[in-house]
């Protein structure tokens, strides 16, 4: 499977995820940024955090493009904003684009389906104008949205190394789940 990680500038989160997943698996992995300038190295703090884990990285930032999007079997973004931008820019690839946290959260799809059903029910109730039922459904929608609102990997850009380490730890947690999920897909 070919996996593409996307963040903003392709100097912190996505190259970190790329290097860590390459270290854990034999899958083809690349990274890019939605607003990246081509040719910049990964940030010093990214390099330091990866070195501390025994992971090397030779990286040059790159802007996401059609060629990369066509190459990828799975596109994993660092934020919902990145995901939504890519789905707008590359609608033909939409079914392959997820945030990393969405893709690794087994409950996400179920919650998303419940949320869509609740919104559909709310539209039906608006027609009948049953205020009590509408309020009940709106409360349920709020609860479901809270469950899926945490889809972003924290951005360490411009912070100290300890913040980069926290981002690395967050990525590691979700990459371990991703590796397990990929192994199930491969078998």
UniProtKB/TrEMBL annotation:
Keywords: Hydrolase, Protein phosphatase. This is Low molecular weight protein arginine phosphatase. The keyword Hydrolase applies. It comes from Gracilibacillus xinjiangensis. Belongs to the low molecular weight phosphotyrosine protein phosphatase family. It comes from the Bacteria. Pfam families: LMWPc. Residues 1-181 form the Phosphotyrosine protein phosphatase I domain. Signal peptide: none annotated.
């Amino acid at each position: 499977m070919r996996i593409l990680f996307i963040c903003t500038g392709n100097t912190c989160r996505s190259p970190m995820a790329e290097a860590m997943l390459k270290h854990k698996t034999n899958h083809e992995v690349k990274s890019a940024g939605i607003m990246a300038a081509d040719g910049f190295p990964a940030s010093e703090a990214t390099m330091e955090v990866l070195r501390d884990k025994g992971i090397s990285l030779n990286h040059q930032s790159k802007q996401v493009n059609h060629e990369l999007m066509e190459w990828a079997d799975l596109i994993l973004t660092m934020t919902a904003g990145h995901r939504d931008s890519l789905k707008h820019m590359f609608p033909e690839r939409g079914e392959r684009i997820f945030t990393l946290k969405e893709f690794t959260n087994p409950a996400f799809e179920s919650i998303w389906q419940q949320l869509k059903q609740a919104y559909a029910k709310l539209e039906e109730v608006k027609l009948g104008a049953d205020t009590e039922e509408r309020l009940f459904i709106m409360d349920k929608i709020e609860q479901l949205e809270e469950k899926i609102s945490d889809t972003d990997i924290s951005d360490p850009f411009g912070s100290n190394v300890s913040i980069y380490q926290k981002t690395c730890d967050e990525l590691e947690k979700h990459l371990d789940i991703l590796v397990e999920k990929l192994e199930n897909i491969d078998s």
